[in-house]
Specification:
It is built from 16 helices and nine strands. It has 447 residues and is α+β, with helices and mostly antiparallel strands. Among the domains are: 41 residues, no CATH class; 69 residues, Immunoglobulin-like (Sandwich); 142 residues, no CATH class. The longest helix is centred in the first third of the chain and has 32 residues. It starts with a helix and ends with a helix.
């Protein structure tokens, strides 16, 4: 009996110990029945309802929305070389869900230059702005047409100067505009350069109107290329040449030469002083401008500075050894200093370049006579025959005759002085006012 009781107690003890374990195993078996071998829930049916197993969401790629703004609007946009549409009337287009990466964005429109730029989606701003530059092919053709027709500047219109200034106002400092301005500046000054050279080589053959036109061309050229020192110098030279011509043409009524810086009652510099100031300005800007140095020498001669004139003309003969006028100017300066032998050598150098230059021949004759060679008068006679229109041989003849002690020669000198003045109405070969003083001296001696 006792053994049975012990057996019953042991059985109850085991049952109490195993019950929780069994419950746990049952729970695990239920969970295992609801999952597949991977541990994921499987579909189960409860009555008529099907329960789907839950799924994990796949990660989505990161994208950006690219906005392209164009000026002008309605421009075609290409992404990586593929046309993707055109901007709207406001110049805007958007590309959505653009994956991260590098792209090339190009914008095109007829009549404008294309524009291409790179874009790094994800690291750069998703808004790109394109401002296309208009093509200037038609404008360049019109400019070239005006230049080819010689319509460089006013007063005729249309002209290249007006046209390129209008383009500059419309399109600003574009490289094409800068090239057109530079090209036109060069063409304009090209028209002035021959006039500049001619005023130094053959002063009498250049009209004031030609000088004014050349100055206008230089001024317009300078407006297009403001920092060009050479053009600045050439413009200053032409202003000086016009001032010198105006003073010469004023003739006997003109005031005698004034020192540099002198002026009229209002303080305006005029006459030789104005010309000298401009020539000096030109030489400061460009000391190699031989024409300015030559005319500077002419002004110095007119101001009775023969030594200064000699130095100026000597430099010109080195810079421009083929300029007959430079050697004649040097001969005149040397004569003014009483260096007659050297003056003769300078005049003869001029004749090596231009054998029938009447001024050089007459200069030799006068210098020879003053040197004591009476045969020099024959040179003066020959000069009259070489160029009957030149007043210089008659002036030199009058100077020679005025040095005589014979009253008969004084009478002839008076006649030659008057003839020289009449043949030089614009004072382009010499200043008549100075000759009139010599005439007055001869007339006084005759009384």
């Amino acid at each position: 009996m006792r053994n049975e009781v012990e057996a019953m107690s042991q059985k109850r003890f085991l049952t109490a110990q195993l019950t929780p374990v069994i419950v746990s195993l049952l729970a695990l078996s239920i969970c295992a029945a609801a999952q597949d071998p991977t541990g994921r829930p499987t579909e189960t049916k409860k009555g008529k309802t099907t329960v789907k197993k839950p799924t994990r969401a796949e990660p989505q790629p990161i994208t950006v929305t690219l906005t392209v703004l164009t000026n002008p609007p309605q421009s075609t946009v290409l992404v990586n070389g593929e046309e993707r549409g055109a901007t709207d009337a406001e110049g805007k287009i958007q590309f959505e869900k653009l994956a991260l990466g590098h792209y090339t964005i190009e914008v095109r429109k007829d009549g404008y230059g294309p524009m291409l730029r790179g874009f790094e989606a994800g690291t750069e701003s998703p808004t790109l702005v394109f401002k296309l530059e208009p093509k200037l092919d038609d404008a360049v053709k019109e400019f070239n047409s005006l230049v080819a027709a010689g319509k460089l500047a006013g007063p005729e219109t249309p002209n290249a100067f007006e046209f390129v200034e209008k383009l500059a106002t419309q399109y600003g400092a574009r490289s094409e505009i800068a090239q057109l301005r530079s090209a036109l500046s060069a063409r304009l000054i090209e028209t002035a350069i021959p006039v500049i050279a001619q005023t130094a080589i053959s002063w009498r053959t250049v009209t004031r109107e030609q000088m004014v036109r050349a100055l206008d061309a230089a001024t317009n050229s300078l407006a297009l290329k403001k920092d060009d020192a050479r053009i600045q110098a050439e413009a200053a030279y032409l202003r000086g040449a016009i001032a010198l011509r105006d003073w010469q043409v004023a003739g006997a009524s003109a005031e005698p030469p004034k020192p540099e810086g002198s002026g009229d009652a209002s303080g305006n510099i005029r006459g030789p002083a104005a010309a000298r100031a401009e020539f000096e300005t030109a030489l400061k800007l460009d000391e190699t401008l031989a024409a300015a140095r030559y005319q500077f020498g002419i002004v110095l001669l007119a101001s009775s500075d023969a030594a200064g004139a000699e130095a100026a003309f000597a430099r010109v003969t080195v810079a421009e050894p083929r300029w007959t006028s430079a050697h004649i100017g040097l001969g005149s300066a040397l004569y003014g200093e009483g260096k007659f032998a050297e003056a003769i050598a300078a005049y003869r150098k001029a004749l090596e370049i231009e054998a029938n230059n009447a001024t050089a021949i007459a200069g030799i004759g006068l210098a020879r006579v003053m040197k004591g060679e009476k045969d020099g008068a024959k040179d003066i006679d020959r000069a009259m025959k070489v160029d009957p229109a030149s007043a210089v041989p008659h002036l030199n003849q009058a100077i020679v005759l005025s040095q005589s002690k014979s009253k008969k020669d004084w009478t002839r000198a008076e006649e030659e002085f008057k003839k020289a003045i009449s043949m030089n109405p614009q004072n382009l070969e010499f200043q008549n006012s100075a000759v009139e003083k010599m005439l007055t001296e001869v007339q006084k001696r005759k009384k």
